[in-house]
Amino acid sequence: MTATVDAPERLVGKAIKRREDPRLITGAGSFLDDVRLPGMAHAAVLRSPYAHARIRGIDVSRALAMPGVLGVFTGEDVKDDINPLPCAWQAGKVQNNVNTPRVLALEKVMQVGDPVAVVVAESRYQAEDALDAIEVDYEELPVVVDAKKATEPGAPQLHDNAPNNVVMEWSCGKDAATVDQALADADVRVSQHIVNQRLIASAMEPRGSIGRYDPGTGEYTLWATSQAPHVHRLLLGAFILGVPEQTIRVIAPNVGGGFGSKIFMYFDMPLVLWLSKKLGRPVKFFEDRTENYLHTAQGRDHITDVEVGATKDGKITALKVKTWANLGGYLSTVAPGIPTTLYGRMVAGCYKIPNIHVDVTGVYTNTAMVDAYRGAGRPEAAYLIERVCDLVAGATGLDPAEIRRRNFIQPGDFPYDTGIGMLPYDSGDYERALNHALDLVGYQDLRAEQDKRRQNGSDKLLGVGMSSYVEVCGIAPSKWIGLPGEGWGAGLWESANVRVHLTGKVVVTTGSLPHGQGHETTFAQLTADQLGVPYDDIEVKHSDTLGTPFGFGSYGSRSLAVGGTAIYKSVEKVKEKAKLLAAHMLEAAPEDIVYENGKAFVKGSPEQGKTIQDLALAAHVGYDLPEGMEPTLEATTFYDPPNCTFPFGTHVCVVEVDRNTGEVDVLRYLAVDDVGNVINPMIVDGQLHGGIAQGLAQALYEGAVYNDIGELVTGTMNEYAIPKADMVPNYELDRTVTPTPVNPMGAKGAGEAGTIAATPAVVNAVVDAVTHLGIRHLDMPLTPERVWRSLQGASA
Amino acid sequence: MFPTQFDYHRPGSVQEAISLLQANPDAKILAGGHSLLPAMKLRLASPAALVDLGGIDGLRSISTNGGVTIGAMTTYAQLRDSNELASRLPIVSETANNVGDPQVQNKGTLGGALAHADPAADFTAVMLALGASVKAVGPNGERTIAADDLFVDLLTTALAADEVLTEVSVPAGQGKVGMAYEKFRHPASGYAVVGVAVVVPVDGQGNAASPRIAVTGATSKATRATAAEQGLNGKPLTDQNIAAAAAAAANGLDLNGDHFASAEFRGHLIEVFTKRALERAAAQVK
Ligand SMILES: Cc1cc2nc3c(=O)[nH]c(=O)nc-3n(C[C@H](O)[C@H](O)[C@H](O)COP(=O)(O)OP(=O)(O)OC[C@H]3O[C@@H](n4cnc5c(N)ncnc54)[C@H](O)[C@@H]3O)c2cc1C
Asked: How far is A130 from chain B (nearest CA, A)?
């Protein structure tokens, strides 16, 4: 093995192709449904056709007699062995009427798709056939699907312990009276009713799980489409099944996207373990797309009344927000944390607003559970404040860009406390990103073109929309997010082990895990540079609770900022040990040793140094170690971040609205993002592309629709419009770089920024196109009919 | 998403297919499977047996002798890629390219589309506008059904359960004919929220001679827009006449609505898309 002292090529900052892709795109990956265990049986789930009903009785006798059926079980059969699923969020000082789902409904169903019984059979087809033979006697109950209506007098009541269907009443910011006074004192005052519609996560791979109980060892193994296997193990052991945690192993195979929906604990995870023990066979459950749409956790669904006050020159002086957050029929794992910590505390956006008051009412309705979905609370907050900026522009007659400039938090203000209970924003230069984006897009020319079209009465109305967003990611300091603070029930630190093997090959074992983000590449790039070893010598291991240190999972754009920092710190520890060992081998004083580019040497004489490979070998054979040093070369770090990180930027969208049909054509989409330092620009761009597509899709296409009896009208991909390649524009991306002081890499996080920024940019563009006709706001999705109708009523 | 159990047959001839259909009253014909299989997976259809026409020679063909005759099992991709059709019946190639996505075009068949009679299908309207007819072969021999008589109601045609649609014939046009299909795609399914097909022959003076206009997506089955046809008949294709015809296109139609597009909006779209289609057709015969 030859080692050189020449600095190897730096990999951080390079657009290296993702090392996981050849496997994933040639069918060589192993997703949940690829896992086939010997003797495996298959489960199918009978689901409620009613949104709210009492179960009077269930007759499974015919199903039991069907070919291939191994067992049929109902809520009664499992209720003594399997506890209701936990909800982690238990905020102090807030009334918190918790109702979580059981794995199979007992007595009542709360939504269409609620699991009522499970059949296990030799094949999935036989299990599905047997479902048709189960007879359930339902007594239908009245249904409510709208969060605001659910809180009104006379609404159907879902849970005995939640009067008026209220989960919790939560507030932040200054007291309401102070903010009311500030509103009354304002020169300009605007109020608006804004709906942030419900979205279906639509990951490419639906959800599922396989349970295997080993009667010989008493061990349970769960394969699950999971964004958080360690958390799932903990909840399964300590809360749901009441079995010792160490007897459970959770494996997340390759996971085909999640967007948040795979963070949570779902009924099938404990159920397949229980079934496996009961039947003596491994049991697989894999939801189909219909089940995924009906029952896997969904996102957003806010109804908001907002009032804003401003001076006549556009300084926002007061913001009052009242939001009804629809949380579904029961609480999902962290559901109430989303519209509170991650929404209410982010409504200030990038702006200095002296008076803010936010009220959030969490509400039960007869719909699917709502929890984190890409962005989780911050898209709702960014949408609100960015719509508000445009409303203030409209009311003051100022340019939307100017409103933003006049209210921005300034570079010298950081760390900046918005005063509504969010952690201090870490760093930023919001105006630079805005100005750069407007320059790149040619803002003044677009405005001139818009004027021209308005004057000549063109049928193609031009609109330019912008959104200057800031979001909180890299979550989160445990003492802030945990029980005594925000009430999330757990901390949010991360872990990593870095091990240099005897041969000098490196294995990074991380508690964090990918479900499409490219961790294996990014983490290897980071390690290669920090440790000075070849990229190809590094392997990144993850996703199996057996063999990885505890981690809280992948969400909240936290993998790099928190999980990556744990790796960084472990590498630092390995280097420290390597230096001590080198000092011993070189018979030098430890303080004279430097470590550079994979080599430890006495300052000034790199030729005589020891390479990391030499040192790893010496550390492993162990016969010549300094006094007191343990063999091997590895380190583990459990890293709890001191703060979150706050990426920001400005996105600009240019649209053309067809006056005749209300169709919106996105002509251009330009984004200037600041995610801090970038490890792999291609992966960051990929995250932004996907994120923008999702955000744009909320603006224009997506929306879950329930009818009055609680049926999901958009229950298939024939009705629910996820964006296809020809429905999204080309993205023009650029960046500014403002490193965060929060972590040593200066990296903020890029997983959700695109989604958060895009929705308001697109809606602002469409409203901008029609604002000269007196239209101030349109609710999403901006379907052709919605836009066309608004134009029918419009003046001019 | 898991169909009930079914038997599968792959006959080698139309006659054999008919015998299988007679022997299995709960059987269904399988063509491209792009309407039938999704319905089976959702258990909206549970045929006891499938009779796959894919093994029968001669049902995948495009032949021209005066008019054009297309075998029932001809896929959208074949229609899309046919040079013959591109020059003689450009509306057919253009529409084939507008159905679903490439995967759907590779599997879906013209016969399947017409036999299925989805209210939002594209080719139902196009064949109505072209004045096409289909050949149906059953136990008692064959008969010809005009497209005008084929579509009976939602997902219902004049075909009997044991009849096989074997081919589609489009008569030869006389003189200059303008034709176009304009479609407002549903953002999720790609099907027509509204589709309008127009076929406009013109006489020596440039006046519309028995134009045919058909609408899909907006009613329970593809339907002729007779008010628009009559309004345009015998008239030159001026902007004014086109606008008047478009404005009348939804007259007399029983429009349906859903959460994405109300009946009123569909009525409006019919006007806009009829106008667009007629303008394109008019430009071809200038
Ligand atoms: C994702 C997707 C998108 C789509 N988008 C569109 C779209 O934009 N526009 C559009 O028009 N369609 C669309 N379709 C439907 C597609 O065009 C279907 O292929 C077509 O409607 C049916 O043709 P098929 O050959 O697949 O028929 P099959 O699905 O095999 O059969 C359909 C029905 O017709 C019967 N049948 C088939 N052939 C015959 C025959 N020769 N004689 C008698 N009966 C027969 C069958 O028994 C069955 O009842 C889409 C489908 C999918 C899956």
From this structure: 11
